[in-house]
């Protein structure tokens, strides 16, 4: 593995993202949202190969419970690491980069949803200091992006995890 480089995606990255991670519809949508100021897309690069990504959602949450109970809190969505590159610390580095960037722009907390059937991801988030909120699981929608460009909406019940961001630890 070369030196991992995590940076915000730009439109010129799209061909490399699609080659490495697929999901053209997803990345096109997230770049458009980023352009509109609704969030930012961070990509983990190993040399010129995209090996992971996370989208930081800054717009109001789609779920009414999150809008009501976590107004203005950024959400980490669609954290993924390429299948052959999992368990190498890439997800941890993506989380760290997103948290540092949020702290630098004066966010004091971040939240995310993780499916009830994803204990591996839950362990990662808990190791990074995320704790489950007290209001129980929330009904969300998982968007599955297929290689043919089609996407599918699936209901998903998620645990909501929150982490305070301490700006003094993030230069």
UniProtKB/TrEMBL annotation:
What PROSITE patterns does the entry give? GNAT (PS51186)
* SUPFAM superfamilies, A to Z: Acyl-CoA N-acyltransferases (Nat) (SSF55729)
Q: Which GO terms describe its molecular function?
A: acyltransferase activity, transferring groups other than amino-acyl groups
Instruction: Answer yes or no on keyword Lyase.
Output: no
* Limits of the N-acetyltransferase domain: 4-150
Alphabetically ordered keywords of this record? Acyltransferase, Ribonucleoprotein, Ribosomal protein, Transferase
Q: Where is the signal peptide?
A: none
Please provide one cellular component term from the Gene Ontology annotations of this protein: ribosome
**Know the name of this protein?**
Ribosomal protein S18 acetylase RimI
- Where does this protein come from, organism-wise? Nonomuraea solani
């Amino acid at each position: 593995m070369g030196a991992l480089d995590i940076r915000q995606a730009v439109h010129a990255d799209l061909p490399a993202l699609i080659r490495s991670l697929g999901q053209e519809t997803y990345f096109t949508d997230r770049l458009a949202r980023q352009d509109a100021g609704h969030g930012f897309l961070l990509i983990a690069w190993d040399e010129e190969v995209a090996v992971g990504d996370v989208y930081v959602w800054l717009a109001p949450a789609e779920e009414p419970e999150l809008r009501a109970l976590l107004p203005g809190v950024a959400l980490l969505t669609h954290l993924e690491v390429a299948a052959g590159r999992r368990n190498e610390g890439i997800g941890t580095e993506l989380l760290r980069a997103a948290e540092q960037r949020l702290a630098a722009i004066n966010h004091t907390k971040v939240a995310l949803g993780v499916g009830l059937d994803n204990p591996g991801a839950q362990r990662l988030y808990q190791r990074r200091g995320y704790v489950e909120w007290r209001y129980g699981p929330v009904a969300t929608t998982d968007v599955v992006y297929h290689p043919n460009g089609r996407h599918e909406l699936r209901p998903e019940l998620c645990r909501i995890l929150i982490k305070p961001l301490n700006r003094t630890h993030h230069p």
